[in-house]
Amino acid sequence: MPSPHTASGAFRTTHWTVVMEAALPDGDGGQEAFAQLYLDYWPPLYAYVRRRGSSPEEAEDITQDFFTRLLQKEALAGLRREGGKFRSFLLGAMANFLADEWDRAQAQKRGSGHKPLSVDAEDGETRFQALAIAGELTPESVFEKQWAVMLLEHVTEQLRAEEVRSGKGGLFEDLRPHLQSDRAGLPYAEIATRHDTTEGAIKVAVHRLRHRYGQHLREQIARTVSSPAEVDEELRHLINVMRG
């Protein structure tokens, strides 16, 4: 994945940029970019709505209509940044939507002609249940926890895709539990035997993967904030969310 920075140090593409692209005249680029945001942030927002007391069916409808409303040109044209963090913007926008626009959106939905975007609602509910049983989390905490989980999943998938392209997909699966030092995995000696190499080579491979994992994680976080100075702060927040 290319770095989110140009040679001048400026951010190249952020989630804010992607959302604003959807407000441009009809074109595949903006629509496709918005669809990716939809897939990335649907589970956290769905979990937030569920934690606020909505049924699975209601939460699915609310989250769907929130994105449909966001995609409408008149809504996007009026968007303004409030703070640099994209997740904070989305959470605030959903809270406002629930407070002010749900009834109106339901009325518009019946005759709007907008086609709903496809999403795996069952997967969203499964993810919510996994978080909900972990403790008495607030709706905001559930949102942030799911945001963190989705972000780390994306980073892992990016790394897996790299390793598969280089012909090391099988080795990656054995090494993946060692990406974070607090996770258990097969002993290095056993992995070395499975892949006909040395334990020293496995240690080097783990070190390399951890380095690339960290690079991808910083790149992903950089796309969700408005300046490079916020990356380290957001990374610390991510660590605290996962530990909480």
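That was protein one. Protein two is written in the same sequence-then-structure order:
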Amino acid sequence: MKPPTGSASSKQAATPAVRRKPTPAEIAHQNSMARFENGLQLFNRNQFGKARGIFERLTENPARELAERARVYLNICQQRLARAAPQLKTAEDIYNHGVGLANQGSPEEAEQYLRKALKLAPQADYIYYAIATTYALRENVEGALEYLLKAIELNERNRYQAQNDADFANLLEDPRFTELLYPEKPLT
């Protein structure tokens, strides 16, 4: 049997739903969920250092389920990062570890290891180059240019490598960077 036209059920369907503003607690929960998803993306890209920081902050979240999930991922991040602490004896070992940290999204920590490697091998152009990339990733233009210049002085090939290195993308608009990579040839 069909309900008569004009019944309450057909009137409800025709009435648009009234949207209410989310409460501050709902907004905070949405923001926490977005941070959690960002942490998962970093985790899935093996950037455990960055993901760990996000998950650490979320463990104090008032939403118990979210805090528990964050603790699980935090523990996994800590385990994966703990495994990556090999015995570093040579400049090359320390350099490789620093580059690995940079690739995992921890340029500050990478820089510390790269500086140690540089103390052991002060003429290693590739270490200067790697430090320049960590500075560039952290948007320290002056530091990036200083170390890149030294890397190029030690080995001209670093100039050509830097021309296509995505780590220097935020320096492309700086005329000093352009001049360093594409110096004018003197007229003869």
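Residues 24-44 form the longest helix (21 residues). Keep this in mind for the problem set.
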